[in-house]
Amino acid sequence: LPKDIFEITPWLAYWMGACRLSFKPKSSTEYFEQAFERFNDQEDAAGIFLAWAGIVDSIIYTSENFKPLDQWIGIIERIVERFGNFPSEDIEARVASSMFLALTLRQPHHPEVEAWAERALSTGDVPETLNAKVQTLVYLIRHQIYAGNLEKATLALESLKQLQLFRDASHLFRILANLAEASYSYCTGSLEKCKNTVSKGLELSRKTGIHVFDFMLTGQAVLSALDEKNLSDAGNLLEQMDSSLDSRTPWDICFYHLLKAREALIQKNPKKAYYHADLSLKYNSKIGDLNNVGLHQLLMAYVMIELGEYQQAAKYIKDIFYMGSQFKSTFGLEALRKALAYGKNCGYFYSFWDIPSKTGELYSKAIEAGIEVDYVQNIIRKRNLVPDEPPVHLDNWPWAIQIFTLGRFELIIDGTPFKFPKKAQKKPLEMLKVLISFGEGQEVGKPWLCDILWPEADGDFTVFVNSSAMTKPLTSERADYPLTYGIAGWTAWLLNVF
Predict the structure, then answer these.
(1) d(Cα 300, Cα 297) in Å, to the nearest integer?
(2) Between the CA of residue 37 and those of 29, 42, 68, 292, 372, what are the distances in Å?
(3) Please, are residues 46 and 87 in contact by the beta-carbon 8 Å criterion?
(4) What is the largest distance, in Å, between two alpha-carbon atoms of the chain?
(5) Residue 398 and residue 214: Cα distance in Å, rounded?
(6) What is the pLDDT of residues 110-151, one digit of tens each?
(7) What is the helix, strand, coil percentage profile of the chain, to 5?
(8) Is 411 helix (H, G, I), strand (E, B) or coil?
(9) H/E element holding 444?
(10) This prediction's pTM
């Protein structure tokens, strides 16, 4: 086509990028970016959304550096705000799918990550949305496996395997679906099924000439062979991968060194394992796949243990726990679930020489996840445990005293609503409400408090202000003396009064 026509027609640049995505994803990025700029100048909403999705997909399939995705995640949020609704349902599915992929790779802890997946999957079952749904389900399986939600990963795989879903899916996404199923089969221990799925995927690659995922598929077969202790087959496959290493993407090379490190650990060669694990970690740091950071650190921890470098291993383990908490992974919760079930069965209430605040933090995680809640609440009450940052977001944390003020005033004592006697003194209760309204830790002068509680009073009087023993009177001669108290102390006194 004439160059001048190509340059003024953004849809030509878009479709040039789309044609290259399956075979030369790196070169497709520049065409999508050209189209995006021209669509933006023309205020073409459909073109802007589709070009954005093309850019994101090309960055992901190029697998060299995922860090630019952060920029495009921010851009789409502004585009959605700018145009409001999507031009069509199939464009919504396309954009939502690409946004979900970008978030899983760069911001897996993002609060909307699964909402974008649901948005892509909830569009109508029409041919135009098929590829977007296949892509979403593939990466949803990966995301849920990494998060430790195997049940959700299973549901996603079942949806992916529905025959009507594959009838019109592109070859690229059918190969990608084979990779997802192989990975799932490996993680669930179905090694033979994993190898069979890898063979199906590689055969489809040969027939179609789409080899973007060959390396990752072969890697799943290596993992299965290593788990079967079939070092001969694993070694042959790794040699096959090594022969094409120079032409592979950084993501592929990172995966290769990860496999080599695992092979070396099985062969009891920790120095070789360290060499490959270190290379893999460095490649992943350059690529910016946050999903894989924890896996690499876990591998390095194992390597350091084998080398006798226990302090370094502990550092990696600490980093893993931090990543898991950011990602909301459930792997740690499974260990906590087993430990608390064992403790409950045996009747344990104390762990020897622990740090109570840290134990309290652990138990807040258990309550939040619904793990042995009654047992944990009982331990907290017996030991009076509270984390360094009190878990005020947990309604079922067993506080000794709970006070509700918005919409109603209510005292809960050890989980039971406190019933005021009919002839209860009103002033102590009013004083508690006033103190709450001032805020915890505030210093309030006696005249101010007296003016609120006894606006009609004149002359000298005595107010008891010691929040611990409540026995020290404060007379009107000390009018400038501030009332310093804690709400819990006043509440305790109030209960004694009643």
Answers:
(1) 5
(2) 12, 9, 17, 33, 55
(3) yes
(4) 99
(5) 54
(6) 989 999 999 999 988 777 888 899 999 999 999 998 887 888
(7) 70, 5, 25
(8) strand
(9) strand 443-445
(10) 0.67
